[in-house]
Amino acid sequence: MSDAGGSLLDCLDADERRQLLAQTTRRKFKRGEVLFHDGDPGDTLHLIDKGHVAIRTTTPLGDVATFAVLGPGDVFGEQAVLRAGDRRSATAVAVELAETRTLRRDQFEALRRRHPQIDRFLIEVLVAQVRQLNSHLQEALYVPAETRVLRRVLSLVPSYLEADGSCVVPLTQDDIATMAGTSRPTANRVLKAAAAEGLLRVGRGRIDILDAGGLSDRAG
């Protein structure tokens, strides 16, 4: 495995890490393929090895909202290993060709019984999510929508930055708007202004990052 769950699995020692990964099943998904739907029975945890996965839901008005875009090293579906009978609370979709490692609830429980230290892994996952939720809540309350839009774009740069310095984020303006908790017209206006400054270029279903440093300065 090329370090799927990287920083989170670092909380395990080498033997615990090997035993956890030995239990996983590798799965591949095409661009746009659904890993699971909102409401599906939840019985597996996913560790992203390659590619990116968008976590989305459908609003009461029928719009699709993107909560987050996760990349290599991220973990999702962890609630499925905590309680039997839980159903998925969102839909997971491969943004591009993606590869994950999956772990069933019964496998994880068996590992926990043999190696209680593995609970550190689950704790790290939950702590990371709580921190992110707190950060986004504070932004929603105190940070202008314009800044939130730029920050959501900027947060994706490390995952998509290529060795030659190029960076293409394959998301739509709707994705960015819902991630920032604002409207599409607001996201469109902010991205157009950033494009006019030469910070990025907006294309069909993609955003080319031209000046990540300048984008960071604008995002505060």
Please explain how this structure is put together.
- The chain has 220 residues and is α+β, with helices and mostly antiparallel strands.
- It folds into 2 domains: 6-139, Jelly Rolls (Sandwich), CATH 2.60.120; 145-218, Orthogonal Bundle (Arc Repressor Mutant, subunit A), CATH 1.10.10.10.
- Helices cover 41% and strands 23% of the residues.
- The chain contains 8 helices and 11 strands.
- The strands form 3 sheets. Strands 1-8-3-6 form a 4-stranded antiparallel beta sheet.
- Helix 5 (145-160) crosses helix 6 and helix 5 (145-160) crosses helix 7 (184-196).
- The longest helix has 24 residues, at 119-142.
- The radius of gyration is 18 Å and the shape is globular.
- It starts with 5 loop residues before the first helix and ends with a helix.
- The model is unreliable at 1-6 (pLDDT under 50).
